[in-house]
From TrEMBL:
One Pfam family from the record: tRNA-synt_1b
Name listed for the protein in its UniProt record: Tryptophan--tRNA ligase
Assigned EC number: 6.1.1.2
Organism, as annotated: Paraburkholderia sejongensis
Gene that this sequence comes from: trpS
Enzyme class: ligase
Keyword field: Aminoacyl-tRNA synthetase, ATP-binding, Ligase, Nucleotide-binding, Protein biosynthesis
Family: Belongs to the class-I aminoacyl-tRNA synthetase family.
Length: 338
């Protein structure tokens, strides 16, 4: 594949806390793989994180470096992936302003992802304007780098749909092809449940296993995982569906035959939860140990991590500025262009 026809990927996460296994299975593995096959931009979305963290801005800014450490620890290579800080690329905010003119408040309120996030946060009608326009900000992030592919969970598909709506609306308005539509890249496991089984994994809900978790933290989390409440005795047949331990085994155990055998044994009875949890615990310990070790190495030289972010952000600004120049030119706003 030549550089000319390589896909361009835009991906990232809100910097509200450390990354966890839900991120890893949802898109981190895809990002590590795709950096060898595509031109990849990885965005630390601190500006978007501020939309619902008023008064908690210090937590957001502190987590920029923490999330960067997580990315580097799982194998993101700054020589292959451009890692940037959203707030330090002002071109993204300016592009958002132009795109906002192409969407109505009613359309933003109909976005299923935003509706669900509003419900979870209890905003009702008291919605911060920045949060409501989150889809437009995300569209600016994607289109600024002319991304053709965006790794997301299935809950983010409405955001990709809205991005492409805005691209088509802008191109139709200026009567030329300036911005590029994108495709969602879904992992084989689009969403990982929390250890409580009640919601998707989230650090804020206290049901996540972070990528930097200690061995003891991993063991405690696995032991606390929701299984089958009707599986009271080892001899009882158990349900695999809705059982968080088996959901994690499906996601992280590469030996599919081994998992299938455990499921069959559990369903017919004679297999205790403690045995299945022990299998999962061993798998997660093996997975996280090298990630935790690499994170410690990077953490010992935070100045170099900041330098990586600075270099990536500077490169990202150059790319975003070129797109913004095209947008302003199409809108007739390049008054002083030579």
């Amino acid at each position: 594949m030549t550089l000319a026809n390589r896909p361009t990927i835009l991906t990232g996460d809100r910097t509200t806390g450390p990354l966890h296994l839900g991120h890893y299975i949802g898109s981190l593995r895809t990002r590590v793989q795709m950096q060898h096959e595509a031109t990849q931009f990885l965005l630390l979305a601190d500006t978007q994180a501020l939309t619902d963290n008023v008064g908690r801005h210090q937590k957001v800014t502190e987590n920029v470096l923490e999330v960067a450490l997580d990315y580097l620890a799982v194998g993101i290579d700054p020589a292959l992936t451009t890692i940037l800080i959203q707030s330090q690329v002002p071109e993204l905010a300016e592009l958002s302003q132009y795109l906002l003119n192409l969407v109505t408040v009613a359309r933003l309120e109909r976005n299923p992802t935003i509706k669900e996030e509003i419900r979870l946060r209890g905003f009702e009608r008291d919605i911060p304007a920045g949060f409501l326009t989150y889809p437009v900000s995300q569209a600016a992030d994607i289109t600024a780098f002319k991304a053709t592919h965006v790794p997301v969970g299935d809950d983010q598909l409405p955001m990709i749909e809205q991005t492409n709506e805005l691209v088509r609306k802008f191109n139709n308005t200026v009567e030329r092809e300036v911005l590029v539509e994108c495709e969602a890249v879904l992992s084989s496991v689009t969403r990982l449940p929390g250890i409580d089984g009640k919601a998707k994994m989230s650090k804020s809900l206290g049901n996540a296993i972070t990528l930097g978790a200690t061995p003891d933290e991993i063991t405690r989390a696995v032991n606390n995982m929701y299984t089958d409440p009707q599986h009271l005795r080892v001899s009882d047949p158990g349900r695999v569906e809705g059982n968080v331990v088996f959901a994690f085994l499906d996601a992280f155990e590469p030996d599919v035959a081994k998992v299938d055998e455990l499921k069959a044994h559990y369903r017919r009875g004679g297999l205790g939860d403690s045995v299945v949890k022990r299998v999962l615990n061993e798998r997660l310990q093996t997975l996280i140990e090298p990630i935790r070790a690499r994170r410690s190495e990077y953490e010992a030289d935070r100045a170099e991590v900041l330098a990586i972010l600075k270099r990536g952000t500077e490169h990202a600004r150059e790319v975003a500025a070129a797109t913004l120049a095209d947008v302003k030119g199409a809108l007739g706003l390049s008054y002083f262009a030579q």
